[in-house]
Design brief:
- It contains eleven helices and 13 strands.
- By secondary structure, the protein is of the alpha+beta class.
- It folds into two domains: 200 residues, DD-peptidase/beta-lactamase superfamily (Beta-lactamase), CATH 3.40.710; 114 residues, Beta-lactamase, CATH 3.40.710.
- A hairpin with a 2-residue loop joins strand 10 and strand 11.
- Helix 3 packs across helix 6, helix 3 packs across helix 7 and helix 3 crosses helix 10.
- The protein starts with a strand and ends in a 9-residue tail after the last helix.
- About 4% of the residues have low confidence.
Length: 357
């Protein structure tokens, strides 16, 4: 396979020319070497890294969109981002709270059809904020998930199955942390019901269009399809996961360029009406070794807090992280089911080593 590297610096929108030269060094040499080694050894088909800082955004891409090696990956290549969708779901909630349309403490019973009997723990019902912090007591995935094709596990999971499962389920850990795709997917569904719009249209209208993110989508145009990387797992191509019912848990595709804009807005480097809602999602709500905000997890390192989320599908892996105090963030995308979190974490805190030098 022909390997192609591309490195670029995007300096628009952020700051003064005096700082521009600093951006050319945002992708460390050891990170570039590690990426090349992973791709050249066949671990990853392609990897794109974006680093966000006050001086601008810098991108580095190495590898290919497909195993034929004909087209290189870059900051405009679309990848599935899997569970990195969840911060978008949490932001939709937080923005609605900021607008006075919802409360974090609204109970899910108020939004679901009367025929559905959501789980309760005594008199306590699940609140929206508990869905967003993984403290709803719901399991990681619905136990009645029984797909026709496990390579696309959520594609045929229906709203009726969702309602059936939550009506029969008894929660025991309400208030305790258990990472739940089901819970975040249910939150996305409730937002759809409340606003009378699809999850994708809510993301586009209330986030993507506000920030100018034109490639963060579920439904792709023909032109975007041409820029979408094929996902791989153990050398086999994997389909893009469909997730119509639990979309809020992980349905989006995006580019490093779009996600860099999202991170810059979270850092306050871009003027955005979403900043207050974004800051709401950053607040630590569940304590622990890795505290939890609304969707975001907080990795505590020596003197730093990395706000982060990763995602995985059958054939892609993603990492988004940022350090508010350093005004720096990172995005890592790959079209292979292979962990690349260490790349992003190392960029944000060089004291934490790369797993593959």
């Amino acid at each position: 396979m022909r390997r192609i590297a591309r490195i670029g610096v995007i300096l628009a929108l952020l700051v003064p020319t005096a700082a521009y030269a600093e951006c050319s060094t945002l992708i460390p040499v050891d990170v570039q070497s590690s990426i090349q080694a992973r791709v050249d050894s066949g671990i990853n088909a392609g990897i794109v890294v974006g680093v966000i800082a006050a001086c601008g955004n810098s991108f580095y891409g190495y590898g290919s969109m497909t195993d034929s090696g004909d087209t290189s990956v870059d900051e405009h290549t679309l990848f599935e981002i899997g569970s990195a969708t969840k911060p978008f779901t949490a932001l939709l909630l937080a923005e609605a709270v900021e607008q006075g349309e919802l409360s974090l403490y609204d109970e899910i019973d108020d939004f679901l059809p009367a025929t559905v009997s959501p789980p309760r723990l005594g008199p306590r019902s699940i609140q929206l904020q508990q869905l967003a912090t993984h403290t709803s007591g719901l399991p990681p995935i619905p136990e009645n998930l029984d797909p026709v094709d496990w390579n696309n596990p959520y594609a045929d999971y229906t709203v009726e199955q969702l309602y059936e499962f939550i009506s029969d389920y008894r929660v025991y850990g309400l208030g305790s942390y258990t990472y739940s795709n089901l819970g975040m997917g249910l939150l996305g569904h409730i937002l759809e019901l409340h606003f009378g719009a699809s999850y994708e249209s809510l993301v586009i209208e209330r986030i993507a269009n506000v920030l100018g993110m034109q490639d963060t989508r579920v439904t792709l145009t023909d032109e975007q399809i041409q820029r979408t990387a094929t996902g791989y797992r153990e050398g086999e191509a994997f389909p893009i996961w469909a997730n119509p019912t639990l979309a809020g848990a992980g349905c989006l595709l995006s580019t490093a360029s779009d996600l860099a804009t999202f991170v810059a807005a979270n850092l306050g480097l871009l003027d955005s009406p979403l900043l207050a809602a974004m800051q709401m999602t950053h607040q630590e709500r569940i304590p622990g070794n890795m505290p939890v905000g609304l969707a975001w997890h907080m990795r505590k390192t020596e003197g730093k807090t990395i706000v982060e989320h990763h995602g995985a599908t059958g054939g892609c892996w993603s990492y988004i992280g940022f350090v508010i105090e350093d005004q720096m963030g990172v995005v890592v995308l790959t079209n292979t089911y292979a962990d690349v979190d260490d790349i992003g974490i190392h960029i944000l805190d060089s004291a934490i080593p790369l797993s593959m030098p």
